[in-house]
Design a protein that fits this description.
There is one protein chain. With 131 residues, this protein is α+β, with helices and mostly antiparallel strands. Helices cover 39% and strands 12% of the residues. The chain has six helices and five strands, in the order E-E-H-E-H-E-H-H-E-H-H. Strand 1 and strand 2 form a beta hairpin. Helix 3 packs across helix 4. 18% of the residues are buried.
Length: 131
Amino acid sequence: MWDDLPAEAGPYHDWLDHEAGPVVRPYTMTGGRARPITGGLHLLTFVEALYSPEADLIHLQPEHRAILSMTPTALTVAEIAARLDLPVGVVRVLIGDLLQASLVTTFESDTAVHAPDEHVLQAVIDGLRAL
């Protein structure tokens, strides 16, 4: 099977894109997991890094470290996913790992707890239509 590969293929493979760099499938970052270990994380759930001097950051993946470095102040799950350019499902699993290790804390946004009044939403829609 592998003998059929052309000799000029060398270190280059189909999964390597010179413009985009090596392509890594999202499930490889999560170990094949599709759901976070702990709790449900909504798009508007805020995530904030916790400082822990005894934390074992060496064994974290680069994506875990990126989440910790970008959340000294709270960011939403959606914003973290956008900044990392990763699917929200992958980011939820990674945040779940950090929650289990007590490296982050989460809390719900006020808008998630207290949804805006229907009249306010209608006023926003009317304002957008007026543009």
